[in-house]
Amino acid sequence: MGNSSSNAGDTKGDSSNIDLTKFQKVHKNDNRENEPLLLRAGEGNTCPAESSSLSAMEIHDLIQSTRLEKAYRSFIFERQELKRQLEENGSKTPSMHLKNKEKDLNLLYKALRDKMMSVVRDSNNEQPCDTELLVKVAQIIQEEEKREKDPGSGEWSWRDSWKEAVRDGVKAKIQSVTLDTKEQNRAWLAVHLGQLGKAVVEDLENVKNNLKKCYHPSFNVFNTYVDSYHQAIAQHLKEIYQKEIETKDSYALLKWILNDYKSEELMGSPTLQPDMCDNIMVLPLEDDFLNQIKEKYWQQLKEVFMNIFRGIINTEQNNMIEKKEPEILDWYHSEMHHDICKALDEYMTRIQEMNANLEGKLLCIFLDELQCFAERFGNDFEQWYTDMSEPLCAQYQIAHINSFISIQEYLEKHRATSAEQVEKVVQKMDAEVNKLGQTLMEKFKEKTEPNFKNLMRGRWISDEPFREIVNDIEVLSELCQHMRPPYKQKFVDEMHYFVAKQYISQMMTSRWSCGRRDHERIVFTLRRQWGVLYENFENMSSSMNWVYPAGEHLVDIIEKKKSEDIKIVLQSLVKDYPDISRKHLRAVLDFSGKLNCLQKWAILNHLDNLHQNPVHAESQNQKFFSEIPIKKIHCFCCVSGH
């Protein structure tokens, strides 16, 4: 607004290049000179000829009809005329006519500015744009910038007003982009951001190719529009963020901010080069706002993974309730590991599309939930395994072992991203595999234990319990064919070790001895049964072959009738198994039933001598006899010593 002082009309009119000689004083003989002229603007006066002076109303009409060049010339003439009249009036109090004229010119000045800013505001929203009109607006702005500090000029910055008009035009452009509700379109935000990006590029292309040339370079037009888009979009995104944002929406928002905005699809578009500089391509959001979006997304992903894992457990339980046999794809197969790996792969791919180095954070969230899942899985399924019948229960246990092994292998490719946390989860997976394997092994032990105890009844070795044991081994062996390495080897080795130890322990805990009558037949049976066990585990590719000689040595001892022959066998036994004790050997000698106490004493002393030989120093890597407890003591003299 202009000042109402006596200098209100003072301008730099002399510096204007506009020809003002055709203009005359406005309404010199107007009978309503006491009324501001713009108050009569609504009266339909006819525009005067070029050679005539224009009234305030006529200038106003020119402004409203966007005949800005003529309106501006007339306004400049009237402003200079008012200045001359005020100077002629000197120190006298200005007449009401002059006061009203001054008010009218101030109103016209603001109307001119508003109209010009309207032209600027609409210039990027009108197709095609009236570039000639925009050129005139830019010229008038430059002319008025020369007079900004003069009395009578507006109390505003023309350049700032222009920038504000640009911002308003940009805001209008953004608001014109369709924004559906989530009820209308589940992908409402992704679609909106895509359309918004397209609108921004099209608008900046128009600025670069058309609007920019309408201005003097000092306007820095392209950068002004880019900066306006930065500000307007930042505010627009904050408003959107106040809506109900789901996981997919948070992802779309983050991806658009962190990647798409500066990509070739938007600010980095080749069509905006070379005007678009790298340093103005990134959306300058406040750190707090960007962190809010990220944190919300992380919390949402946490919920997503929790729901995925919960769904996996429910699926597995339903399959077990329905007694569906696990699919065999080389191994017993469960979709569990596939669903888990797919979940991380899917969201990792999305995170990588943001190009913001957020993979580590995503992996940490996933691994935290995976560790909780493994613990919950073990707790939930412990009872399920107990209630299920064989062999379906074993099939599921092996399928789940295979799944956990697959998950472990899958996590290895992410170790470089978060080594410590990956190792922690891998160990948890390993613990669950061992837990499942031990549950399977304990059932095998429980099932075979009664038959092992019945192997050597009285003076006879019954083949029926042994056949039951072999059958259990073969059943579990068949199941193990569908167990994944490397745990398969560990499980087979543990089963082999257990069977060998249990079989041999029966020779040392039996209350009966072979006796002379059935001795050869018993030795034959022992050797044959031990060979059958060896063959079974050989077929299972057991790596515990080192336990096989133990049975052979013991059967040789039981077979021998002379102490000297037994001592020879004993030398090989101690060499292979230096942890055999006097108690173990005494139990075997008792089982043999052929030697008296003195003979046994001599053989036991020979064992002591062998133990003292450094050649037979006990290996710390392989323990066998020391794992077999001996409770029965027949004769104190025979067990004293080592």
From TrEMBL:
Q: Name one Pfam family in it.
A: Sec6
What are the annotated GO cellular component locations?
exocyst
In alphabetical order, the GO MF annotations are: SNARE binding
Q: Where is the composition biased (Polar residues)?
A: 1-19
Region Disordered: what ranges? 1-20
Taxonomically, the superkingdom here is: Eukaryota
Biological process terms in GO annotation: exocyst localization; exocytosis
Q: Which family does it belong to?
A: Belongs to the SEC6 family.
The cross-references to PANTHER family, in alphabetical order and at most eight, read: EXOCYST COMPLEX COMPONENT 3-LIKE 2, EXOCYST COMPLEX COMPONENT SEC6-RELATED
Protein name (Swiss-Prot/TrEMBL): Exocyst complex component 3-like protein 4
